[in-house]
Amino acid sequence: MKEKFNYYTIYCKYWIITWFKIIPFIIRHGLFDTIRDLRRYPWLLVMLKVNRLLGKFGKGRTLRYQKASSIIVSGIVSSVTEMLGNFFFNSERMIIHEDMVPPEIFKAMGLAPFMAELIGIMLPMIEPHAMEDYIDMSESSGIPPDICSLPKSTMGMFLKNETPPAIAIVASNLPCDAGMCSYALIEKQLELPTFRLDIPYHFTDERALHYFADELKRMITWLEEHTPGKMDWDLLREICEERNRMMEYEIELWDLVRIRPAPLAGEAVWLTHMWFFNLFPGSKKSTTIFKKMVKLGKQNLSEGISAVKNEKYRALLWNPPLIHFIDLFNWAEKAYGVSLIMDSMSFNRLPFIDTASPETMLEGLGRNIMYGPMARHTRGPAENYLNDIFYIHKHFDLDMLWVAGHIGCKNTQALNGILREKCREAGLPLLIIDYDLSDPRIVPREGIIEQINHFMENIMKAKRLDL
Amino acid sequence: MDEFPDFFPDLLEDPYNSLIEKALDNGKIPIGYTCSYVPEVLLSIDNLMPVRIFAPGISGTEVADIYLSNVICSYTRSLLEFAMDDRYDFLKGWVFAASCDHLRRLYDNLNYLLKPEFIHILDAPHRLGEIPLSWYTEELKMFTQAMASHFNIDYGEKALIDAISQHNEFASLLESVGEFRKEKYPPISGSEFHTLMIASQAAPKHFLIDKINEFKRSLPERKKKSTYRARLLIVGGQLDDPNYIKAIESTGGLVVADHLCTGSIPGLTPIVIKDDPLTSIADHYLSRTSCPRMMEEFNARAASILKSVSEYNVDGVVIEFVKFCDTWGIEAGMLVSALRDAGIPVISLEREYRLTGEGQLRTRIQAFIESMGK
């Protein structure tokens, strides 16, 4: 009874907080215009249901764990309303960019970045079937069905003309061939000036660092020519310094989750990184979220409370999280006591940016991209992928590896054979979940649960705790 | 000589063909490569011999599927299957280009499973320009150093210039055969020409020169291909089985030009020596190929196809690509729109690496030709 009361207290508090962030935006935009734009951009309607995440992440969790995920949802709402503010009120400075392109530079140039893949990532978290129309649109326009459903979702949005008015596009050759090629179609569709960053495959030496830093300089020059943006190096320094502060908190958070049982887990680790490092780095609001995560973790630790009530297994999740089954780990915690400790999207090895000069900042930002998971893991060579897995396994004292085996990700599918053999050698239990990143019609929630049940019962010899 | 000489198709039956065997007896060092971004000319220096890897007659990819999965393009899976079946044991080294997701992972898996004595992957930039050219030149420099040290090969300037000159002479010989395809009634079919193209990548060139010259001399006397219904241009990536083109031509189409990775446009463009030979080679291989991996070149690729359409008096374009290829998958959809906008009839076909569904292919091409009113 007390647990239920606590749950609803936190739920209602953050439900109100998030609406207090959304309503002023609607008022500013105007009720009539909001209704018109909800029809014009149907995905906005899905976004308005963002509070569903409070329930998906919070239900049945311990107090501070629930609070942590609610703070993250509230932070997501803040950042999305800020982004939509640019969308509607600052479109003369809006640039559409691909993931794996540093948003810090756009912000330092006074531009309003809109990461096109954001919709395809965020919407299925709220409404699992949200991207199906966009995927179908791409496929009916000649894009083969086997292409990754994230670029298909993104292309579908552009093909349906449901994207913001923008002045330019910035893309790159990352994270994969499908992502890279999708921008050829987007460029054709929008008829906007487009810039593409070329990121080396051999990225681990000084030569690559200089090459990519030069690419970033070329991008800045191009943006200054094609947009009203002007580079403000002092602002970039502030952004990078703030990002460094956020990183310090993240490292502290990682140290906390190394402890068994972990005082925080799940979204506090993966969603914070995915959202605030990739989309809104260098903002004080983002840093505050991490600061709060560390504080909650420390409180739990000092009181001997684990995030997951009965942490029996500690898991590493590889590949992007299962966005249309975003409460997977909330379910797995209750079903088997599986706690998600670390994931491939969050873990990185070169976190800080040297802000001594423009050159060092560009190199630092370049390094972050090149060493980012969707670069060093998805492109190769295979050692990057395997070495990280086994390092994380030991460093975070993990019991099992769950690979989100997105059927459209050819890069990772093609390493499953080697991975199976390496995991067997290392004695690391491995579950490869067959599914599609954005399309639940391929493998629905029930199908994913069935695969996990098979693995837990047959390999881990575990019994369901919730039945 | 109306019959196409068996000599050429025979070379395509096995990667270890009679000419490779002969070259090995002469002390040649065969180096396998998989992509047009690997400068074949650098594998033609001294005793080296380039062998473009293919898997003719592959019947299944059961072992490769375990490692590469069944959502990777069947070309790469077929190569891994053949490799696991020791069919490339005669190779002394492997050279890859990090050109696409599939080939990068083939490199990873092959390296893990076979641990070849020499294996190298070149990082080819995804765009053109001075800085990427300098990067790629540096890549080639490091590659030649690795080759020189492993195989004791001299990559001096003279050796490079000689190799370029031989490369250009051979390309010009094939180009002169290809010129016959521009005729209203060419004496050579698309599948025959493609057989020459593939043979020249699968066997040592110096053993082919006389045979190609002999064939070329016979062409003016050869019976013309006068009964075709439509002149076709074929566009796509890796296609090393001329029987695919033969199946297309069996329906009354005549493939008069090709924009294929393994084909003649722009594959037979000569290397122009501008600066030092290595930079010229880098420039040639980076800017020559027509792969959609070059992310800023869609318009140039479409324009080049349109140019060939007019140069070869083409009636319709056939785009083919191996299923699961992301770059060609997206490119094909865009090319269809671009060519239709230009008023060119076009069909896009997804296929497996090995020739399957021949009947379906024929039916689709037949319908395509009929849709052109031919």
Task: Walk me through this protein's architecture.
- The complex is a heterodimer of chains A (467) and B (374).
- In chain A, helix 10 (177-190) links the parallel strand 3 (168-172) and strand 4 (194-197).
- In chain A, 59% of the residues lie in helices and 9% in strands.
- Chain A starts with a helix and ends in a 9-residue tail after the last helix.
- In chain A, helix 1 (2-29) packs across helix 2 (31-40), helix 7 (117-126) crosses helix 9 (149-159) and helix 9 runs parallel beside helix 10 (177-190).
- In chain A, strands 2-1-3-4 form a 4-stranded parallel β-sheet, with helices on both faces. A 4-stranded parallel β-sheet of chain A has the order 6-5-7-8, sandwiched between helices.
- Chain A has 467 residues and is an alpha/beta fold.
- Chain A has one domain (2-458).
- Chain A contains 21 helices and 8 strands.
- Chain B is an alpha/beta fold and 374 residues long.
- Helix content of chain B is 47%, strand content 13%.
- Chain B is built from 14 helices and 8 strands.
- Chain B has helices at 7-11, 18-25, 62-68, 74-84, 101-114, 130-151, 157-178, 190-202, 209-218, 242-249, 277-288, 298-311, 326-341, 358-371; strands at residues 29-33, 48-52, 93-97, 119-122, 230-236, 253-260, 316-322, 346-351.
- The longest helix of chain B is centred in the middle third of the chain and has 22 residues, at 130-151.
- The two termini of chain B are 30 Å apart.
- The mean pLDDT of chain B is 96.
- At the A-B interface, helix 10, helix 11, helix 19 and helix 20 of A face helix 3, helix 5, helix 6 and helix 13 of B.
